[in-house]
Design brief:
This protein is an alpha+beta fold. The protein has two domains: about 10-85 and about 165-179, Alpha-Beta Plaits; about 90-165, Alpha-Beta Plaits (2-Layer Sandwich). About 30% of the residues lie in helices and about 25% in strands. It has four helices and eight strands; from the N terminus they run βαββαβαββββα. The protein has helices at about 25-35, 60-75, 85-95, 165-179, and strands at about 10-15, 40-45, 50-55, 80-85, 105-110, 130-135, 135-140, 160. The strands form two sheets. A four-stranded antiparallel sheet has the order 2-3-1-4, sandwiched between helices. The protein has a four-stranded antiparallel sheet with strand order 6-7-5-8. β6 and β7 form a beta hairpin. α3 (about 85-95) runs antiparallel to α4 (about 165-179). The longest helix is centred in the middle third of the chain and has 16 residues, at about 60-75. It is globular and about 45 Å long.
């Protein structure tokens, strides 16, 4: 077990990473990228750009280092959002759609807190519900995300994960904190 005193556990949520297409990044490559950036004990979860690791750096410095490594790899700017386990636990707790199926609740992660009126004038074409809580936008898609015509402002600067993924990432972070 490597020396980890003074290291915090972080969860990185990469933007525009997927199984195929322009954002293809195998999770083994993401683990290697994180290790080469100096992050320790890296674990990944599903093929959508999720990594959990340790670092002695601050959250802004973790983000900057990760984005620089991604830019070097892809040859263009690539975004990453970073949270701690405690922040993910708080997101799970504040979820305004707890009674909905977890796979139908999307959390859109943003870098900065949004004003409460950030969604003023938002046109909701179906039965979707949208709430802002701190740095996250919660969206309930009762009819599924694939059928929705909802256009959420800020979606181009954030990255989304469904609540199942958020819960799993929080659990992975908790496991790493305990080891």
């Amino acid at each position: 077990m490597p020396y980890t005193a003074g290291m915090k556990v972080f969860v990185a949520l990469l933007r525009a990473i997927n199984v195929g297409g322009t954002g293809k990044l195998p999770m083994s490559d993401l683990r290697q990228l994180c290790e080469e950036a100096g992050f320790k004990d890296c674990r990944t979860y599903i093929q959508s750009g999720n990594a959990v690791f340790r670092s002695a750096l601050s959250e802004p410095n973790v983000k900057a280092k990760l984005e620089k490594s991604l830019a070097t790899l892809f040859g263009k700017s690539s975004g990453a959002l970073v949270r701690t386990r405690a922040e993910l636990q708080a997101i799970i707790k504040v979820n305004p759609f707890k009674s909905a199926e977890a796979n139908r609740v999307l959390v859109l992660f943003m870098d900065e807190p949004l004003p409460r009126d950030a969604l003023k004038g938002l046109q909701i074409p179906g039965r979707e519900k949208v709430r802002v809580e701190g740095r996250e936008i919660f969206i309930h898609f009762p009819d599924g995300m694939g059928r929705s015509k909802l256009k959420v402002p800020f979606a181009q600067t954030g990255t989304g994960r469904n609540m199942n993924t958020v819960v799993k990432l929080a659990a992975l972070a908790a496991e790493l904190e305990q080891n």
